[in-house]
């Protein structure tokens, strides 16, 4: 009987070691943050909103949304799995702000170029724990480094 118990303990130990080595099996993630560069004639005020969306190319991955500060255009960190993402950016004036309709009209052309249907922005999230990006809406590019 003691040998059967020892085998069970050995089996459980081996299973735990393998589980620990393999992990939970989920994809690696990275905290992505950075900044946005607007085209020269685009100005934001404190009450405007800036939405940044990461839509995964692989349907198995989870995407996510975050915002950027309208005053310094810093992208708030978001945890994303590794993989390729289509990126969208949308600007909006606060509905109660002065001239919000006129301001939204000025954002329309820019928003149409970076919405879910038309955005050409893509980013490959790598396995680094943290990475900073720069989204340049004037150039239509995303570069690593923020």
Notable characteristics:
elongated, 146 residues, 8 strands, four-stranded mixed beta sheet, alpha+beta, Immunoglobulin-like, four-stranded antiparallel beta sheet
Would you give an account of this structure?
The chain is of the alpha+beta class and 146 residues long. The chain has one domain (26-144): Immunoglobulin-like, CATH 2.60.40. It is 24% helix and 38% strand. The protein is built from 2 helices and 8 strands; from the N terminus they run αβββββαβββ. The strands form 2 sheets. Strands 4-1-7-8 form a 4-stranded mixed sheet, with no helix packed on it. Strands 3-2-5-6 form a 4-stranded antiparallel sheet. A hairpin with a 4-residue loop joins strand 7 and strand 8 (141-144). The relative contact order is 0.22. Residues 6-23 have low confidence and may be disordered.
In short:
The chain is 24% helix and 38% strand.
DSSP E strands, number: 8
The level of helicity is 10-25%
CATH architecture: Sandwich
* CA distance, first residue to last residue: 63 Å
Total domain modules: 1
Outline the biggest β-sheet: 4 strands, mixed
State which percent range the strand residues make up. Answer: 35-45%
State the strand order across the main sheet: 4-1-7-8
SSE string, helix = H, strand = E? HEEEEEHEEE
Bulk shape: elongated
* SS-derived structural category: alpha+beta
Return the CATH topology: Immunoglobulin-like
Number of helical elements = 2
**Which stretches are poorly predicted, pLDDT < 50 over at least 5 residues?**
6-23
Mean pLDDT: 86
- Rounded to an integer in angstroms, the radius of gyration calculated over CA atoms is 22 Å
**CATH class value:** Mainly Beta
């Amino acid at each position: 009987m003691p040998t059967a118990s020892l085998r069970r303990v050995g089996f459980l130990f081996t299973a735990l070691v393998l589980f620990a080595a393999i992990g939970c099996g989920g994809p690696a993630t990275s905290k992505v943050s950075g900044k946005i560069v607007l085209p020269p004639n685009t100005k934001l005020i404190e009450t405007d909103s800036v939405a940044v969306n990461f839509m995964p190319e692989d349907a198995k991955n989870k995407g996510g949304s975050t915002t950027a500060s309208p005053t310094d255009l810093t992208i708030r960190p978001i945890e994303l799995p590794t993989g390729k993402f289509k990126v969208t950016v949308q600007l909006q004036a606060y509905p109660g702000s002065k001239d919000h309709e006129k301001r939204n009209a000025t954002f329309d052309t820019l928003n149409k170029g970076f919405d879910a249907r038309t955005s050409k922005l893509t980013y490959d999230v790598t396995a680094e724990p943290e990475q900073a990006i720069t989204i340049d809406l004037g150039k239509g590019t995303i570069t690593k480094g923020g």
